[in-house]
Amino acid sequence: RNVSTLTILVMGKGGVGKSSTVNSIVGERVVTVSAFQSETPRPVMVSRSR
């Protein structure tokens, strides 16, 4: 079976690296990150296809 869609949910406290993890998984900067403060105050959905 060929699966072309993968859904990943990343949850956790603010400022712990969720956005950096998402960027790493996707392989490009799709979510803003900051070394000094939490940058993503609301849910973000990122979609990529092969």
Automatic annotation (TrEMBL):
Annotated AIG1-type G domain residues: 6-40
Q: Name one GO molecular function term.
A: GTP binding
Enumerate the SUPFAM superfamilies for this protein.
P-loop containing nucleoside triphosphate hydrolases
- Fetch the InterPro entries from UniProt: G_AIG1 (IPR006703), P-loop_NTPase (IPR027417)
Which Pfam families does this one have?
Answer: AIG1
**UniProt entry keywords in alphabetical sequence:** Nucleotide-binding
Q: Does the keyword Nucleotide-binding apply?
A: yes
Q: What is this protein called?
A: Chloroplast translocase 34
